[in-house]
Type 1 fimbrial protein (Sapientia aquatica), 179 residues
Amino acid sequence: MKKAAFVLALAALGMHQAANAIDGTISFNGSVDSTTCPVTVTDVNSENKNGVVTLGTVPASMLSKAGEVAGHTAFTLTIDNKAAGCSMTGRSAKVSFITMAGVAGPNVQWLGLVQEQGAAKNVAVQIRDANGSEIMLGERSAVYTDLNQPLRFYANYIATGKATAGPANAKAGFTIYYQ
């Protein structure tokens, strides 16, 4: 009886091997790159390159109802394509922005203001791409195809209701998705 059980066990093992036969192999190749390319944020109006974009002072009356905009200001992100491993020739990218101080808007698509003493109310900051299309927070912009040139964006105040006067500062982080 023990011999019969042993023979059946060996036969079962042989069938298992046939079910797991290898018909071919696939190799997966790639690499993980730790290179991050330096990026300079420039306020186009002032040519300030310290990462501060000045939207300026606008009267609250220009932001008297939801959806009104003011303080339209251009800024650029310039990738240092001369840094080691940062050649941008033939590459394209999309950019996304995230808030560092809160969100605003009916779809939480705008940068909320930094909560500071006397801050303006019912005001947010909206970001647009080079074509003027709104970039929702956390979503990627349209494709930028020439990464050897500064990537142009626009920011402006946008009313979420009747604005009140006060400091109107916002902070954003950004990610560049190379393609």
In short: The CA atoms of residues 136 and 160 lie 15 Å apart. The helical segments are 2-19.
